[in-house]
Design a protein that fits this description.
The complex is a heterodimer of chains A (about 140) and B (about 160).
Chain A: E1 13-19, H1 24-34, H2 44-50, H3 60-75, E2 80-87, E3 97-107, E4 110-118, E5 124-133
Antiparallel strand pairs in A: 1-3, 2-5, 3-4, 4-5
Chain B: E1 3-7, H1 10-19, H2 30-34, E2 86-95, E3 104-119, E4 123-135, E5 141-152
Antiparallel strand pairs in B: 1-3, 2-5, 3-4, 4-5
The chains are: A alpha+beta (about 140), B mainly beta (about 160).
Amino acid sequence: MALSASHLKVGDSHSETVVENLTRTQIVQYAGASGDYNPIHTDEMYTTKAAGYPSVFAHGMLTMGLTGKMLTNYVGDGRLTKFGVRFTNQVWPGDTLVATATVTAIENGVVALDVATTNQDSKEVVRGSAEARIDP
Amino acid sequence: MGTITFPVEASHIMMFARAVGDTNPVYHDAQAASKTEAGGIIAPPTFGQAVAQFDPDYHLRPKPGQAWFGSGKTPSGLDKAPSAGGLHAEQHFEYHRPLRPGDVLTVEMKQGRTWEKESKRAGKLTFRERIAEYRDQSGELVLTARGVGVTTERPVDQG
């Protein structure tokens, strides 16, 4: 279901919990599907002993993909025209993420959205924006 | 930086959607997808990143006969592990139309800008921009991606 301009106003928002208690196995799934096998995402021994991080952590693109799920659920299938983010904090196994889209403009059949994803400590992990085609 | 041929396949889209926990049938059920506005299976919005699978030289995939920097008997398979390594700082997509199974994309990668910044949490940061243009079998631009990678002087402080 696509959004309709006649039912939207600036400031409207949509939130979803896009992952609860992120597992190392889901990070492995993402490595396999995306082809990004950087061991900092899946190899605890390398990451803690050679790279100097407290544990493996999620690919930024996994967090963007999780955030994208919230967006497509909101704007409808195949409606996105733009989606961009900055990765502001790392995402760790065990994290629970909530992704939110907030309407910032509606014009010429396009909705502009502010996009933010936060973890269970209300720390922002992704910040960005998106645009999608909407119905009249 | 070269050109990569990226065949878009239904099973790959299904696995990618599973990995991001997206159960939307438009990504795995051809019959259900045919009844949606999309008219058939499409790829989720970040799927373009999986072009890495088709880059023969992709540096983040282990290759037979070559040392790999991840762990085996020891924490790293290289004598000297790469410093803090690269992280992903930004990613931006522009969608001209959805990617669909059967598309054979030609992806042209171009190096963009490079810049530096000082950070309290990770020392000197070097940012590198990369632009990828995805064209379909008829030469039409279907997706534009702009990524920014960052190399840190030391691991990011978690404080």
